[in-house]
Amino acid sequence: FKTQEREELDEDPRRVLSGQKILSCSESGKSLSQKRAQRTAGFFFTCLECKKSFESKEHLMEHFRIHSGETHYRIHTVDRPFPCDQCDKSFIHKQSLKNHLRVHTGLRPHVCHLCGKSYIHKDNLTDHIRIHTGEKPFACDQCGKSFTHKGSLLHHMKIHTGLKPFTCRQCGRHFTHKGNLKIHIRIHSGERPFTCPQCGKSFIYHGNLVGHLKKHSGEKLYHCTQCGKSFVEARHLQKHVKTHTTERPFVCSQCGRDFLSHHSFKEHQRIHTGEKPHVCLDCGKAFTRLMYLKRHQRIHTGEKPYECPLCGKSFGRLSTLLTHKKKHCPKLTDEKLL
């Protein structure tokens, strides 16, 4: 590549978006042309060389270096000159390494002004804000269902294809998503990456650690507005609130069953209508309630969030844990076992 041409590219990055051919790779023959910023599948800037899209010009320009100058040759040499000194990952670009280091430092500079939640990457914040706005720009062209994130759409599409490309070498089980396979492998390897900083106990799943930490802190975040009693977990508060009232104002016109809350009433009606809005992205099975979907998903992930405090054995369902605990304490009621 000519030095002068490369200098011009650095000085005037707008040429990258103009569609003008600036440089070409002698090894692959690719030309370095870029289209003016365009919206494609929710993204603003699209690379015409490889069709990859980005939400900002800066990210496109960073990516463009793959197709230009010395960095283009990394496509052929697989050169990753920027290694992380805290783990074994390496990166093509220095900026990518800087972004990655936030995983280790805990720096989350991009903060949601609506709820205060913070993120490592700006793109993650952009995705998160759609939860508040209700925007769902990514629609499935087969069933019309829309999603907040592009990744969710890609996951959903596997329901239609039935593709499960990730296989466990130890037991042969197949998974739709790589992340689910990685979690599943911990069952075979015995890896427990989530460690309690207070007692050193380790867990396979992050959810198990979160539940365990509550035992140390004793923090009771869930308060009853009627009597002031506090609880460590939301489910315990929900159960307690029912003790204050016998009134069940929401009555089903089809079967006569009554409910304390409108939410429970609406969920019940789905039994009659057949509506199942909560769909598993791994196998396509649908459920009337979100809690049923979450419970079902543990079949795919292998997650067992309910741990017996007496022997350490974990279970996928609370009911299974209660049955197990009765073996230790056969005289206790379900309420006391909780």
TrEMBL record:
Residues 45-72, 82-109, 110-137, 138-165, 166-193, 194-221, 222-249, 250-277, 278-305, 306-328 form the C2H2-type domain. Pfam families: zf-C2H2, zf-H2C2_2. InterPro entries: Znf_C2H2_sf, Znf_C2H2_type. Keywords: DNA-binding, Metal-binding, Nucleus, Repeat, Transcription, Transcription regulation, Zinc, Zinc-finger. It comes from the Eukaryota. It is found in: Nucleus. Coiled coil: none annotated. GO terms for cellular component: nucleus. GO terms for molecular function: DNA binding; DNA-binding transcription factor activity, RNA polymerase II-specific; identical protein binding; zinc ion binding. Belongs to the krueppel C2H2-type zinc-finger protein family. This is C2H2-type domain-containing protein. It comes from Cyprinus carpio. The lineage of its organism: Eukaryota, Metazoa, Chordata, Craniata, Vertebrata.
